[in-house]
Amino acid sequence: MPANLPPDYFEAEQRFREAKTPEAKIEALEEMLAIMPKHKGTDKLKAMLRERISKLREEAGRRKGGAKARSAYYIEKEGAAQVILAGPPNSGKSSLVGLITKAVPEVAPFPHTTHRVTPGMAHYENIQFQVIDTPPITTEYADPELLDMMRRTDIIVILLDLAADTLQQLEDTLGILHGARIFSPFCDIPEGLKRKPIIRKMLVTVNKMDSRKLEEDFEIFRELSGTRIPCLGISVSGGRNITAFLERLYEMAEIVRVYTKRPGREADRTAPFVVPVGSTLEELAGRIHKDFVGRLKYARIWGRTVRDGQMVQRDYVLQDGDVAELCL
User: N or C end of the chain: which has fewer CB within 10 A?
Assistant: First the structure.
């Protein structure tokens, strides 16, 4: 399958060739990854670019004389989607990660407790999301490596403090992200950007909505902010809307869960294959084993949009909850 790369990709590739330092090369490669279309035809190219980035990070680490080959902000993606929490100090990022994962981030009642990224795995039904706690970002300082990490992630959760100046927090956080060319699909892209914007799914989550009165404050914030980015009020201390938060992540990830079975056996519904919305039977076969693509003849599908055991061809578009019996 052809890669069908857009012109912006080749512009970033030219910047990579002209770059003189590992850091500049890494930035160009990460931009190439962000621009690259997501389909089967780009899988090998993505793997090659990621390998180059890894080697360049090692080179940069050696030049700095550091003992670690990789940046502290480099975390391999795991689970159905990678979710980064971003926001001001004391908004509850560490507490939220501690609540929904088994990670143990640093938590304290005073700001700037978190000094490093801490990943954890959050369970939603029979899948997991990788949720990452991060140091705060403020108008005074936002670590460039943290912003680079946000350019690569799947979903950015902007976590705000309802007990503080929430409107200003949102304005400041979006200003920092926009300054790093990171935009939500719901944000207007300013004209005259010298480099291509990085579009990332975002969810504005307002913490400390601990009472009915504070629910009203959240609604006032949402109305006054005028933001088109999806918003959700939660209470980490009270456990309010935490399930709704995970449901939002699932919706935003735009994935479907597909189960496989052998003839005459039941499907194992505890371990689905997680594929992007719009994936075909052929793409599923490739995920199971690279040799299955060439050997695949057809499949029988059990699901909500087909008759039980209906025979389908390679181009069948998978639906959430489908059970597939591949015939090779």
Answer: N
Q: Identify the structural domains of the chain with CATH numbers, from first to last.
A: 7-63 (no CATH), 82-253 (3.40.50.300), 255-327 (3.10.20.30)
Angle between helices 212-225 and 166-179 (to 10 degrees): 40
Evaluate whether 194 touches 221 at the Cβ level (below 8 Å): no
Of 156, 121, 116, the closest CA to residue 136 belongs to 116
* Amino acid of residue 316: Y
Tokens linked to 114? 């978190």
Contacts of 14 (CB under 8 A, 6+ apart): none
206-260 residue pLDDT tens: 999 999 899 999 999 999 999 999 999 999 999 999 999 999 999 999 999 999 9
Question: How far apart are the C-alpha atoms of 185 and 167, rounded to whole Å?
Answer: 20
DSSP string, 160-192: EETTS-HHHHHHHHHHHHHHTTEE-TTSPPPTT
SS3 of residue 69 by DSSP: coil
Tokens coding 284: 């599923």
d(CA 324, CA 285): 10
Cα dihedral: 13, 196, 253, 113 (round 10): 100
